[in-house]
Amino acid sequence: MTQKDEFHNIDNPGDGLFRELAAGVTTRIFSGEQAMLSVVTLAPHAQGALHHHPEEQWGVLLDGSAIRVQGDEEVPVKKGDFWRTPGNVPHTMRAGPDGARVLDIFSPPRPEYKKAGTGFGTT
User: Fold this and answer.
1) Can you count the helices (H) and strands (E) in the chain?
2) What predicted TM-score, i.e. pTM, was given to this entire model?
3) Are 29 and 16 in contact (CB under 8 A)?
């Protein structure tokens, strides 16, 4: 691995490991030793599956609008909002009318996200 392999661009659709999470929901994944980034794109009104995993997750809404479903709550989020999801808390996102783009940060990295594929991995 060269130093150049450590630099990426959030707007480059060809950068990162591609994964289709659900209909209208895709991500590009960037994995390190202790943390993992996931740039998720949601089509207008698209929603991921309610799921959970042991890893802690932080998210920030980069573009668009959405509803963050977390535990028993549904919280409207707008560009610039960010949140923490403790491990094993059920969660998902539902995009607004213009879609949404979210940066998720996982610690430690999720093993099922270290390879291309489909789905969220755990439910």
Assistant:
1) 0, 8
2) 0.91
3) yes
* Neighbour count for residue 2 (Cβ, 10 Å): 6
Q: How many CB atoms lie within 10 A of CB 43?
A: 15
- Tokens read off for 15: 């950068």
CA nearest 27: which of 10, 44, 13, 41? 41
Joined together, the tokens standing for residue 91 give 């969660």
Work out the pLDDT band at 123, boundaries 50, 70, 90: very low
Amino acid at residue number 115? K
Helical (H) or strand (E) element with 100: strand 91-107
CB 87 within 8 A of CB 62: no
pLDDT in tens, 30-60: 999 999 999 999 999 999 999 999 999 999 9
Instruction: Compute the distance between CA of residue 55 and CA of residue 119 in angstroms, rounded to an integer.
Output: 16
